[in-house]
Each structure stands twice: as C-alpha cells, then as structure tokens.
Design brief:
Chain lengths: 167, 219
Amino acid sequence: MADATSTPDSDSSQVQRRRFLGLAVLAAGGLIAAIYAIPGLAFLLGPALEKAQVENWIPLGPASKVEPGVPTLFRANVRRQTGWIVNEEQMTVYVLTDDGRTYVALSNICTHLGCRVRWVEGEQQFFCPCHNGVFDKDGLVLAGPPPRPLDHYPVKVEDGLLYVQGA
Amino acid sequence: MGARLGDWFDERLGWRKAWEAIFLRKVPKVNWLYTLGSATLFVAVNQIITGILLTIYYVPTPDHAYDSVQFITNQVAAGWLIRGLHHWGASAMVVLTVLHLLRVVFTGGYKFPREVTWITGVLLLLLVLGFGFTGYLLPWDQKAFWATTVGTRIAGVAPAVGPYFLRALRGGEELSAVTLARFYGAHVWMLPAALLALVGVHLYLVVRLGISAAPSRED
C-alpha cells in the first residue's frame, strides 16, 4: 500500500476506528456504572421509601368495660418491627361511647410533644401534665399549647371485643 | 465546549499528560492472560462499592450481626444482590489474584526492573487473604464462628509467639464481641487503607515501567 492516494483513506479509517473503540469503552463503562448505581441507590433508599407497615386490628378487650359517657383506658401489646429489631410495645387507648353502640378510640398521646394525657373525671377533661394541655371529652383542644385534637384510631366491635387499628 | 473545558483544566492540572501516560501508553504484544491484573482491580472496586454499601446496614456486635445480615439479605431492596456481589467477589478476588501471580511467575514478569511491582503484588495477595479471613467472621453464623475459632487456633500453634498471636487476634482468650469488633475494624479500615496504598504503588510502577512482553520461543 505504497500508493499515495490510499494514505488519507487509511488514516481517516484509523481515526474512525479509534473513535468508535473509544465510544464503545465509554458505553461499556457507563453500562457497568449503571448496573452498580441502580441497585446501589435502591439499597440505600429502600427503607426510606417503604410504606409504614399497616397493622392488623389490635384487640383491646371487652366492649362492655366501657361505660357510656366515661372514657376508659385500654392497654394492648403491639409487636413493632424496626429494621431487624422486633419490639413489644404497649399501646394505650381511651375508648368512649355515648350509646353503647358506636365507639370512639382516642390516642392518649398529647399532640404537643408526646406526653401521656389522662382523663380527669371531676373536670370531664383530658389533662396533659407536661405543659398543661387540656382536651375535652372528644379530644378537642380546650387550652394550652397542643396544635391539634387528640388522634383517633379506627375502631370496631366484633363478638363483644373492641379492636383498634394501630399506626 | 467539552474540548474547551478540557483545555481549561489541562492548563491548570496537566491532566492530558497523565491521561496519556496511564491510558494511551504503549503495550507490547501480549495475550489475554495479561488482563488478569485488571480483572483483579475490577473485582477490588466491586468489593469496595458493595462493602461500603453493606456498612449502611451491618452492625458488628454479637446481638445484631446475624440479624442485620439476614435483614440485608431478605428485607432491603437489592440487598441479596449487594451481599451476593460482595460474597462471590471475595472468592473471585482470591482466585484472580493467584492466577495473576501465576501468570507473572510463568512469564517471568517479576524480573528486573519489576522486582518492586512483584513484592507489592505478593503483599497485596496477603492482604486479600486477610480480607477473606476477617470478612468470613462478620455474618456471625455457625460457619463463621467455628471457622474463626479454628483459624485463630492455627495462628496459636506457631512456636513461642503462637499464644500471643491467638490472644492478639481474638482480643482475649475467647472468641467474643471483642473479636467481632476488631475483625470488622480490620476489614473495613486497616486492610483497605493498606490495600489502597499498595495498589497505588503497584499501579504507579505498572504505568512507569510498562508491562513485560510475553516471552518468545527464543527467550
């Protein structure tokens, strides 16, 4: 191939091949990087994107324990899993009824900073000892710093047993 | 645009010269066995990436190690994949490093002027074995526990210094929480630091000296 006219041709094909191989290496590298990056990101962010586990209905006790008009405290044990650690937690719920047929379940956790409220029978109010938050019988804020009413749990009665759906 | 940015940086960093020296250097005519070193480096990078990811969930204490590994494998998204890559990559590291060493031995690649490359390479093989030994304990299952019991006991039979080795490895007489914590520390801090330093020297020498040609029939 000493022919002078062929030299530019072979030169440019040389350049094209080099460019093609460079791009091929870049593409292969990019593919490998993506193969690591995608599962890697899923691995890192997985627990953050997981939806809060939906609890089953938690049995509280006999509905007959609740006297009409009086918020009654129930305690139930809840299994809660965070990561690989399973905890038994105690959950406390105030249940009240006016007619013995429809029930309301209120969280006893103050919406201000998470202290436990208690029912004061004489005042007919829920009282939080931490910062003097006061709620009425339906959990509405009467006084103090709480920003919103007490949380409600979905509640149902089956065969005389009360169940709440925990969060 | 890209070229102008490249020029801007080149004026300040001189990166083009480094790029040429590393990636555009001349290599003699060799065969596929000469890629074993690069293959080892690739798997080492795999071990670094997946290892860093695993530390996000793994906890090196006796009451959490096993459960956190099970959590990674069964609960975390792609956890089985990341752990699997690290697990099989560990075996691949040992196999590839040894094959790479054999290639260098049989083609005479260790000879002048590449003695230092060879010595750092042998030290790197020892580090890889150290990674394998310390990493094997971390899942804290029966196999891990008894393999390390036996492995540390083997160190213990060395004459005179054996019992001290055993105590130093276990952090006491028994295999315990102390052992697990120190194996973890060695696996994720001491050994990687040593590995990166030696890989740096090893690769610098490969670039500086070039690789040896495959020996011909006349050699």
